[in-house]
Amino acid sequence: MSETYQKNGPRFGIIAASLLVATGLLACGGGGKQASNTTAEPAPSEIPTTDAENSAPTEIATGQAGADNPTAPAADGIRPVRELLGANPPPINDYSRTHVYADLVKQARSFGSASAPWDEKATLGDDGWPIGDFGIFLMSDQKEISGIAGTYTVSFDGQATVKLDGSPKTTIQNKRYDSSTNRTKLELVLAPGAGRLALSFTQTGAGIKNLQVIRPGYDASNPPLFTRTFIDHVQRFGTLRFMDWLRTNNNPVTSWDTRTDPQRVRTNTGKGVPWEHIVALANQTGQHVWINVPVSADDDYVRQLARLLKGQLNASSVIYIEYSNELWNGQFQQHSSNKALAAEEVKADLNSPLAYDGSQDPNQWMYRRIAKRGKEISDIFRSVFGNDSMMSRVRPVFSTQVVLPYVSEIGLNFIAAVYGPPSQYFYAMAGAPYFNLGSQQRVEGLSTDQVLQAMEQSVTDLPRSNQFEKNQALASWYGLRWLAYEGGTDTFGPGSLGAKKAANLDPRMQGICERYLSTWYQSGGQLFMWFNAGAGNWDTQYGAWELSTDLAIIDTPKIRCMDQTLAGPTPSLEGRNKAPGSFDAYAYAGNFPPYSKGSMDQVRYLQAGKFNDYLVQAAHAGSYQLILNAATASGGNRLDISVNGSRIANAFELSGTGWGAFTEQAPITLKLRAGFNTLRIATNNSNGGYDLQRLTLKP
C-alpha cells in the first residue's frame, strides 16, 4: 500500500498504505488509504510555513519535455488501456494467500532453530545455507485455501532427520537417499484443511544445502520460479510495482553488497526479493516494471542496479523508477532517514542546493531532498541507458502525497529553481488516491448496503478530497504525466468487518470500482497501479486491498472491474474549464462553488508575486485568444500570464472605468496543447487592486 496500514498480528510487519485526508479521516499508504492506527499526515511543525498556493518561485519558465501532451489521448481518441492499469503485487511471506513461488523455501521465514523453526536463529554460512541443525517455517494461515492440499516434494543435498513441527493434517512419506548424488528426497502429504507447515532438520552433520520444497503439480526436478496461478493472475496487467516485494518500507540496504543476493540469500528477508526475480518475472510475462530504490542506497547501488536492468531485462520492458516509498509519511523509517540525510547534507555544506535560497527549515530541506535524490537517481540511470532511453524506456517518477499537493510543489519548484525543468529528470509525478468509508471507516454495526453507500460517496467526493485539479495543474505546469503509484479500496480498521468483506464481494462493487477508475482517467490521470493484485484475508481489520480471497476465485467484482477497464476504451477527459469556452474567474484549480469569501478574495486581492492556476482542457492543440473580463479602479494593475511553464504575456496592464465595472480586455494570444493545460495568472503590480469576473478562450 502506501500511505499507512500496519498489520499487527503475528509476523505482520508494516505494509504501506496511502494517506488520504477525507471527511476528517486520514487515509493511508503511498497515496490514499484510510489511516491505520498510527498514520497521520505530516505534523504542522513539519509543513513549511510559506503560502501553499503561491510558493513557487515567481514565473520560472520550465518549458516542456517535447511536443507531446502528457494528458492527450492517442490520435484515434483511445489511449492503450493496458498501459494505463497496473498493479502492486502483495508482500511475499509465509502467510500470503498469493502463492508466488513454486518453491516454498523462497517464501519462508529465515532459517530458525531445530526446536523452534519460527525463531529465525539458525547459524548460516556465507552461501546462505544453515550450518548444522535447523528448522524452517514454510507456510501459515492457509487453511481451506485452494492449491494447498496435495503432495509436496522435498529434496536437499546431504542427509538429515526431518520432522514436522506443528503441522497438522500433514504426513511424511517415501524418504530416500541417493549416495551417488548425495541427494535426499521425501514427500509431504497435506490433507484438505492443512494450513501450516514447519519442518525441523536434525542430525545434519555440517549442514544440508540446496533445500527445495516444491508445491503439488510441478516437476520437482525442474520447477519454475513462479506458480502458474500467480502468472495467470498478474498477466492481465501491463505494469507491476514491486514496492512490497522489495520491502521498500524500512529497508536497511545501503550498498550493492548488502542487497539480497540470490546466491547468498535463500529465504524471504527484510531486504526484499532479489532484483533478479523481478527481472525473471518481467522477462517471462513481457510486463513493464515499477521499482523502488531504498532510501539509503548509495550511488554505486543505483548504478549497479541500472546495469543489471540494462543487461538482463528484456528490451521491451519499460522501467518506472521511484525513490523509496512515501518519504513524507512519518510512519516509515525512510521518512526519518531522509530527513536526517537532508540535515547532514546541509550541515556538511552550507552551500548545499537544499538551502539554495537561505532556508533554515529542516522540513523544507527534507521535502526538497526527495526531489533531489530522485533527480540524482535519474541522472545515474541516464549515464547507463543513455539520453535516448530517458522518459521513453526509463521513466523516473516523483511520488508524494496526493491530498497535499504542496509537498509536490516544494520538490518540483526546487528542481526548477536549481537544476532546470523537472521534465528533464522526471517522467511523471504520482500519488495514491484511495476510496474508503469516510467518517464511517471504523463504525460498528454497518450493513453491507451502508458500506457500499459510503464507498459510493467517497468516489463521488474523490476529485475534491484528493485534490485532482491541483495535482493535474501542477503536473501540466511542469510538463509531467500524473500517475497513481497506488490506489483502490480502503476498508482498513476495526468496525463492521463482516459488512466490509461482504461489500467487497457484492456485485455492486464492480460498478463502484469502474466509476472510481473512470473518474481517475477523466481527471487526467494516466497509469494507475492498483493496490493490491492477488488474494488476501478479508476477515481482519487490516483491509480488503486485494482482488480476491483466493487466486482460484477468479470471478470477483474487483477482478471483473479490472478486466472490464482493461477491455477499454478509457473515458475521455472531463475538465471544468474548457477551450474554446468561458469560465468563472473563481474556478481556479481546487476551488469549487459555492465559493467562499476567502476563495473569492484570492482573486480580488491577489498581491504582487502571487498567482492562481487554472486547469484548462483544450479540445484541440493550437492558438487561442484569452480574453479577461476585469474591473479596476485605476491604471497600473498589471498581470503576468503563463501557460504550461512558459510566459506568454509580461506586465499586461488592465484597463477599466471603475471598481465593479467589468470590461473585456484586449485579447492575449496563447498556445494550448490538446488535453489539460495550466494557465497561470500572476499579479505583477497592484495599484488599488483589480477583480476578474470571467476568462474566455476563443480559437
TrEMBL record:
Q: Where is this region: Disordered?
A: 31-55
Q: Which InterPro entries match?
A: CBM6, Galactose-bd-like_sf
* Recorded GO MF terms: carbohydrate binding
Task: Name the chain's protein.
Answer: CBM6 domain-containing protein
Q: Where are the transmembrane segments?
A: none
Q: Highest taxon of the source?
A: Bacteria
Q: Which residues form the signal peptide?
A: none
Q: Which residues form the CBM6 domain?
A: 575-698
Q: Which Gene3D superfamilies match?
A: Galactose-binding domain-like
Which PROSITE patterns is this protein grouped with?
CBM6 (PS51175), PROKAR_LIPOPROTEIN (PS51257)
